[in-house]
Automatic annotation (TrEMBL):
Ion transport domain segment(s): 16-242
GO molecular function: monoatomic ion channel activity
Listed transmembrane segments: 16-38, 124-141, 219-241
Protein name per Swiss-Prot or TrEMBL: Ion transport domain-containing protein
InterPro entries linked to this entry: Ion_trans_dom (IPR005821), Volt_channel_dom_sf (IPR027359)
Compartments, record wording: Membrane
Annotated source species: Symbiodinium pilosum
One GO CC annotation: membrane
Record's bilayer topology term: Multi-pass membrane protein
UniProt superkingdom: Eukaryota
Keyword vocabulary terms for this entry: Membrane, Transmembrane, Transmembrane helix
Amino acid sequence: MLSQGISMDFATGAPGWLVLDTVCSAILLVEVIVKLYVLQPRVYFCGPLGRWNVFDMALSGTAVVETVMSLAAGSGGAQSRLAMMLRGLRIARLARLAKLVRMPLLQELATIVSGFFISLRPLFWVLLTLFMVVYFMAVVLRTTLKGFTAESCPGDPDLSEDLDPEQCPFHLVQGQVYCGDVLGCMFSVFRCILGDCTTKPGQSLVMVFSDGFGLGFDLIYAFGMVVVTFGLFNIITAIFVEATLRGLKASDRQQKFTRDHQSGWMTQQLANFVELATQE
């Protein structure tokens, strides 16, 4: 993995990187073959670590395929067509780092990874809720600005000095630029929620709309930001924390049950072995 990152910035395309990739792929392939020989296929695929072994075999096969494609790649169009596929296969090697979460020294890392996957279902509903809020606010803005068109306004729409304040009010022109359609307005609203509510030259859209629409916009904007920032975001945070803690507790109980079951199984096997040895 270290060589992969270095090869992207230094001596890109040098033959030495291909040789190193070939050696690494050979090591991965030998590892799979040795495990299959030592553990036997039944234990390798169906044992306690069967899923991890299948995962390793898939990644090793991916590395071998990538190396073969790199060696077989020619020049010109064929090489350029294979470039995207090779990059995708290299990214798949990152998944091999998932094995590290089984190490006792990386228990905290395993907790973080488990918490992320546990929170995926709440994350879906959070995304849906945010989408609905952003969509509603974008529709309101589009309805407010729908009666004005900036096509007849000459000059740079981001510079108030180039516009006629009577025929082309600056705040309405900016509204058409950044809320000219629903999707564009949704993106602008999302940027404002995250704090990046600026125009291309760096002006604040909030202040532009405040100067143009007056106190009404100020009250609506302040109320909306309080509801979203202090209400919705706090609820989302609480849901994530609760779902993650609940999932981690369930995972800990499952792991404890598995350890107790394995301990009992080993004790029973030792007892059977001692009994057989005594009878002999």
